[in-house]
């Protein structure tokens, strides 16, 4: 085994991204950082056994792996969304968590994130009411170039979920913001590239294009106002709560959080 093998094992077992690892080997060579060299561990950590240098204990060459990252590969644990967070104060947070997990585990998304080496600490949903005005509707947010990505999963009435494939296209848009902040030519070229990579790697759809329309058009998000919203399983979403009750509860939660922020600011000032 080599130092490089050890870093892969740590990433697989402890879910610590390889680029974040620091290994201290005493007394020499000291602290080792990414990228790790394929140095045999037997030369760095010699054993006290007299057989430690025998041919049988010699390091075996690492088998080459394909470019496809499986669930247990180091790449899949490194270049992914490391935490999923639904909004607990909205209806059916477990359904939102399933939706976020489906996006994280989407074959196309996984392939694109591995290729571009995207590692995002948090993927979460956004509250539609907090990101809707009379003039605009925000579909996704990327904070600090990939620290947090928020996606608009729910309908404005909180009675269901938007089309999965449309949300996935918005996620492609937000992933491109990990590299480019402005909506310039470089940004749109990267967005288009990620979209194609996602579609090509999506084995469920055989790499076919999902739509010929511009994906980031807010009009594509909304069905007719009176149409029934159906989730990706084909089940009608919602529940026993009325739309008015859901919106009122969400508003109360927003007011509570705002009051807490104001109290925190009064006590400790801005941070």
UniProtKB/TrEMBL annotation:
Residues of the WLM domain = 72-256
Q: Which InterPro entries match?
A: WLM_dom
Q: What is the lineage of its organism?
A: Eukaryota, Fungi, Dikarya, Ascomycota, Pezizomycotina
Where does this protein come from, organism-wise?
Aspergillus novofumigatus (strain IBT 16806)
Q: What PROSITE patterns does its record include? A: WLM
Region feature Disordered, mapped onto this chain = 35-71, 221-247
The protein, known as: WLM-domain-containing protein
**Compositionally skewed regions (Low complexity) per UniProt:** 39-59
State where composition is biased (Polar residues). Answer: 62-71
At the top level, the lineage of the source is Eukaryota
């Amino acid at each position: 085994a080599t130092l490089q093998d050890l870093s892969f094992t740590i990433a697989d077992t402890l879910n610590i991204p390889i680029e974040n690892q620091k290994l201290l080997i005493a007394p020499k060579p000291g602290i080792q950082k990414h990228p790790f060299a394929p140095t045999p561990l037997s030369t760095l950590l010699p054993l006290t056994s007299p057989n430690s240098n025998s041919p049988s204990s010699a390091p075996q060459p690492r088998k080459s792996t394909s470019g496809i990252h499986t669930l247990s590969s180091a790449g899949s644990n490194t270049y992914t969304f490391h935490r999923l967070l639904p909004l607990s104060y909205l209806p059916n947070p477990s359904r939102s968590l399933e939706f976020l997990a489906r996006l994280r585990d989407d074959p196309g998304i996984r392939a694109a994130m591995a290729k571009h080496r995207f590692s995002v600490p948090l993927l979460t949903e956004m509250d539609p009411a907090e990101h809707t005005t009379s003039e605009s509707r925000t579909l996704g947010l990327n904070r600090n170039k990939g620290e947090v990505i928020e996606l608009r999963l729910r309908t404005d009435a909180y009675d269901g979920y938007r089309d999965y494939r449309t949300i996935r296209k918005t996620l492609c848009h937000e992933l491109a913001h990990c590299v480019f902040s402005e909506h310039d030519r470089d940004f749109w070229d990267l967005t288009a590239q990620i979209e194609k990579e996602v579609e090509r790697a999506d084995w469920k759809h055989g790499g076919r294009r999902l739509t010929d329309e511009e994906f980031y058009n807010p009009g594509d998000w909304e069905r007719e106002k009176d149409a029934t919203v159906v989730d990706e399983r084909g089940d009608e979403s919602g529940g026993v709560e009325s739309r008015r009750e859901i919106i009122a509860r969400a508003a109360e939660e927003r007011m509570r959080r705002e009051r807490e922020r104001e109290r925190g600011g009064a006590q400790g000032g801005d941070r």
